[in-house]
Amino acid sequence: MTHESKPAAPDPNDFLGVDHGLNDEERSIRDAVRDFSTRELLPHVADWFEAGTIPEPRALAKNFGNMGLFGMHLHGYGCAGVNAVSYGLACRELEAVDSGLRSFVSVQGSLAMTAIHTYGSTEQKQEWLPRMAAGEAIGCFALTEPDSGSDAGAMRTRARRDGSDWVLNGAKMWITNGSIADVAVIWAGTDEGIRGFVVPTDTPGFSAHVIKRKLSLRASITSELVLEDVRLPDTARLPEARSLGAPLSCLNEARYGIVWGVAGAARSCYQAALDYAGARVQFGRPIAGFQLTQHKLAEMVVDVNHACLTALHIGRLKDSGACHRDHISFGKFANVAGSQRVASAARSIHGANGITLDYPVLRHLLNLETVATYEGTEEVHALSLGHSITGIPAFR
What residue stretches are annotated with the Acyl-CoA oxidase/dehydrogenase middle domain (predicted)? Predict the structure, then answer.
């Protein structure tokens, strides 16, 4: 009689073995980004968060460019051209350090570069994409306004024709990298509908002002953009962007990165809580030995693994061409909420220590408040899912 070997016990850090489903290239990218993030970013991110800025963003951009992280899912023009899962894994490993760092890469690649790559002219692509992929030029993406967030179609920024030129006036708000960008993709209303413009930030009339006093996403540079009679030639217009659907499609690419990224933030909080619970002794034994703490950890490991499974499955759908925008709404809706639960529980396990920057949990919890809002609020994605499953739109 032969005896089958017993299955190995689950790995607490990958309980369902989600990463066993990665191929060699995906695993290599995961490891490279994780190693870089742990070595070069993690030791500094608490200080950046406390300072409310990234001290040397251009040096960071060059490092990201050297690693091929900018526009890594795009093809040509110096972009890496990797699959969607590989891009997602990079987002996960960056956000395991901090949401602001994933946002830096996401805004550059999934928003600004994707807009130019998808809707730009050959000349625009050749001028900007190789430099942006290398981290030599920084881009931003300006859709949100002070009075127009979820209802992007209500934007007040206008572009009017003046002979062969366009003149832009208006303001944009909550723009990541806005004050350090070399180029801004600006969306504006025209007599012909919503149009996009590639705007060098040294254009007269363009100004950017850093938003201060943030309590979330502090290791990220966020700005207000002001456009006062910004005059552009028609060659600055994105020729293939002819409706609000263009910027929304770019946002969908960025949301996909969030689906993966927040799984990294949740993993970081869970691992910190697991380590802390094993080391923290109260009433004569580690708090990991108490039933209430184990219940919290059990809920956390479920949420983390659900988030990783959801991200990987949506990534495979995307790589096969079967990913609908509502799949990504599902991922953002589910994974952000699950990650918030994990971060909140991790903070409670850390007790008073959890409110300090000596541990990552409150920093992640605060960041996730912003991630839950940008690129589609929880409410918007809930309504997207509701429309998808009932066939009845409830937005208006």
Answer: 140-230
